[in-house]
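Annotated sample (chain length 75).
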Amino acid sequence: MATARFRVYPAIEDACVESPEDPRIPIRLADLYPLLSQAYEDNYVWLHDLEDDRILVSPDLFEVVRAFAECRPTS
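Output written by the structure step:
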C-alpha cells in the first residue's frame, strides 16, 4: 500500500511570529491530523519524541476534545 506524502509549512501571510521568544506558527487542524494519524499508525519515533510537548488550542477545540474524552461509546 502506498504511503501518502504530506508537506507542512506555514503560508508567509499567515505566520504569526511575534518575536523570537514567541515562535508560534498557525496551522489548520485539517492539515495536521492526517500527519499525526499516519505518524501514529506507523509508530514514527518523532511523534513519541514530541508527546510531552504542550500545544495551544482554541477554546472551541478544547471543549470538543474534553467532551469527546468524557463520552463512552455504546455497544
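Annotation: Residues 36 and 47 are 8 Å apart (CA to CA).
Annotation: The chain has one domain: 14-70.
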